[in-house]
Amino acid sequence: MSSAFPSLAGHFLIAMPTMTDPAFAQSVVYLLAHDAEGALGLIINRHMDLTLAEVFAQLQPEDASFDPAHNQEIFNGGPVQAELGFVLHQRGPEFQGTTHFGELALTSSKDALLAIAQGDGPTPSMIALGHAGWGAGQIEDELRANAWLSCPADHKIIFDTPIAERRSAAAALLGVDLDRLSHQVGHS
User: Fold this and answer.
1) Domain of life here (predicted)?
2) Which residues span the domain enclosing 121?
């Protein structure tokens, strides 16, 4: 009998109420990649006290103007490489640092941020600083320890659901009400 898990790429990881790691407590992670070597994802329900307008001002592009109609919140994508920006978006526009993950793409180059700020960027999109990463077997161990629920992702939750409702909406995909789950874990 094989103990290998199938790939969870394209799934949500929903932190169980028992999750105590402050980087992930109460979080929903969208997994972009998951294979035998590890996993890569973005937390989709934690915004920072930062907006695209503020990032744009820090970039100080000489020949670009900011369109306030395209301002958006910046998310805390995870504890790994928190100084790097990532844009999660539908496939379509190509930028210097775009990598495709199924129906979605992840871009890690400044040209995407500038395009969004000017109204020429991918829509819908989510901008995050940092990402979530796991080494080989780490997610599987955490799932066995009941740290996460997992389910196939619904992109509407990422792009259309209010931030405060994303965790309960993701859990509802499984028919789970997180408010009714016990904060105690046990085995019978």
Assistant:
1) Bacteria
2) 11-154+170-178
